[in-house]
């Protein structure tokens, strides 16, 4: 652990090449649990924006918000124009799928380096994601052996189909489904992959938050994932909630900084905070049961 870490204010940096914003717990300077957060393609589309949109301010834990591949300081050569080109050529195969796959694979490496630099306890971390960041969290749960204390996803892309359909409606251009694209979509369809999520041992308690004003990922998409998982989880270990005022886009463009607090965002933040309070260990108690 670095001796010069400031324990009272956010810290920025990179861990394993991944940009992050680290926010310390407000209530203690002792080692605390850690939460890893991943932002969306839509606002909040940066680690800074997510830190302000879902701050989890009352949670006695370090919150580490990570930047996604191809976003912010990780733009590829050619910048935004190159990202747009990939999306236009094949949004699923060249942009969405690779970003979600890489983001999920990076989580364990980021955690390992952050543990060496910040005063966190040795207990498993919690994972949090919004939109495509939520898909990366679900992919990590489905495919990694990394221990996870709890997970919470907000407006998660539970499958690429609705996003592709919404993008086609907005652009007025139909997506050309190839066999490869269908394979990628099936791989990232987490309702279809519910057995992989349910087979994780130990299971991570999972909260799925959907917005009533989300016109891309509808509440029934999150409910379908919940219903597919519930028979295989312990009672109350998977939960679905609907936040009526929450939209798919959780802030103003360009989405690199947090917008003013919105009612739906505040309620989603409260739900995540209570979920993590309930399911994460604290530094000085065996189990926190505040939710």
UniProtKB/TrEMBL annotation:
<protein>
    <submittedName>
        <fullName>Alpha/beta hydrolase family protein</fullName>
        <ecNumber>3.4.-.-</ecNumber>
    </submittedName>
</protein>
<dbReference type="GO" id="GO:0016787">
    <property type="term" value="F:hydrolase activity"/>
</dbReference>
<dbReference type="InterPro" id="IPR029058">
    <property type="entry name" value="AB_hydrolase_fold"/>
</dbReference>
<keyword id="KW-0378">Hydrolase</keyword>
């Amino acid at each position: 652990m670095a001796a010069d870490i400031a324990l009272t204010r956010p810290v920025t940096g990179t861990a394993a090449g991944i940009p992050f914003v680290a926010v310390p717990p407000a209530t203690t300077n002792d080692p605390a649990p850690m939460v890893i957060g991943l932002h969306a393609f839509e606002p909040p589309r940066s680690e800074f924006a997510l830190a302000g949109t879902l701050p989890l301010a009352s949670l006695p834990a370090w919150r580490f918000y990570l930047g996604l591949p191809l976003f912010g300081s990780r733009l590829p050569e050619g910048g935004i124009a190159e990202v747009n080109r990939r999306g236009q050529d094949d949004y699923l195969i060249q942009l969405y799928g690779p970003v979600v796959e890489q983001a999920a694979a990076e989580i364990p490496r980021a955690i390992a380096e952050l543990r060496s630099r910040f005063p966190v306890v040795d207990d498993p971390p919690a994972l949090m994601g919004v939109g495509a960041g939520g898909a990366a969290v679900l992919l990590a749960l489905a495919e990694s052996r990394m221990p996870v204390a709890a997970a919470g996803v907000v407006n998660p892309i539970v499958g690429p189909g609705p996003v592709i359909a919404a993008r086609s409606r907005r652009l007025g251009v139909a997506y050309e489904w190839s066999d490869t694209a269908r394979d990628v979509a099936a791989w990232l369809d987490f309702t279809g992959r519910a057995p992989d999520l349910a087979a994780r041992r130990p299971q991570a308690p999972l909260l799925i938050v959907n917005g009533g004003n989300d016109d891309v990922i509808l509440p029934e998409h999150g409910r379908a994932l919940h219903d597919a998982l519930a028979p295989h989880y312990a009672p109350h270990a998977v939960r679905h909630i609907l936040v009526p005022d929450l939209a798919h886009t959780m802030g103003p463009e360009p989405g690199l900084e947090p917008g003013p607090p919105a009612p739906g965002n505040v309620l989603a933040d409260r739900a995540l905070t209570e979920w993590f309070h309930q399911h994460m260990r604290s530094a000085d108690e065996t189990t926190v049961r505040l939710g």
